[in-house]
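FYI - complex with SN-glycerol-3-phosphate, inputs then prediction.
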Amino acid sequence: RPAQDSGPGRPAPSVVAHRGASEDAPEHTLAAYRKAIEDGADALECDVRLTADGHLVCVHDRRVNRTSNGRGAVSALELADLATLDFGSWKATPDEPEAPDRRYADPERTGVLTLERLLELVADADRRVELAVETKHPTRWAGQVEERLVTLLDRFGHTARPGRPAAERPAVRVMSFSARSLHRLQLAAPEIPSVYLMQFLTPRHRDGRLPSGVSIAGPGIRILRAHPEYVERAHRAGHRVHVWTVNEPEDVALCRDLGVDAVITNRPKQVRKQLGLG
Ligand code: G3P
Ligand code: CA
């Protein structure tokens, strides 16, 4: 990534918008990702799940209940079912108080977002924007999530092919808590960097080592609060460190001071400002 200056001797972490600018707009909607791009995010994070008819959609939870006016598991619904739901009106913001008819007013704020549409948004951006795609509960699907993901990434030019120079490939990375999912992705597209997400620091990873083939460590911020030495260990082992979910100013400062490579945050604008980038 390009070096960014943030003061006392270290480059600032790059800023990744978690589920889009999800503090200001409903998570995983086109509106949230447009806002993240406007806010200057270096990269966009999204979670993906497979629908019953095999489409990858950007939804965090197993069920749609929390973030839409529908009910049920994403895996049991078809894309056409999801397209009838409102994924935005659950979230009120100071400038847009809750309005029951808002879904008719702004489909970008309320429609279900497919990964395909998000890839289009990234491709059409007027500057380079990276994408970090997280596979959710991939073990249920015996490889289908990864297969579909690589097919889509390939279609959008993110995989290596003869005659497709690496420098021209937009930067996409894949993330997962599942080493098995990352392994499948590496087999299909070894050129795409992978991020191993960790909720806890297990003895196996304490020294900075990661599952084979993984280049980036993805610890939760709680790991860094308890084990700040982890960043240096991971760096010494040759890995970059991308930390989630970094929203509080003291956590942003901790990541900056430890030399973290990327912070994944719901508030890209405020974090960039704190880092002296915006
Ligand atoms: O970016 C990683 C982070 O998103 C993992 O946690 O639950 O927000 O998907 P979660
Ligand atoms: Ca995620």
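The longest strand covers residues 43-50. Strands lie at 14-18, 43-50, 56-57, 130-135, 172-176, 194-198, 216-219, 240-243, 262-265.
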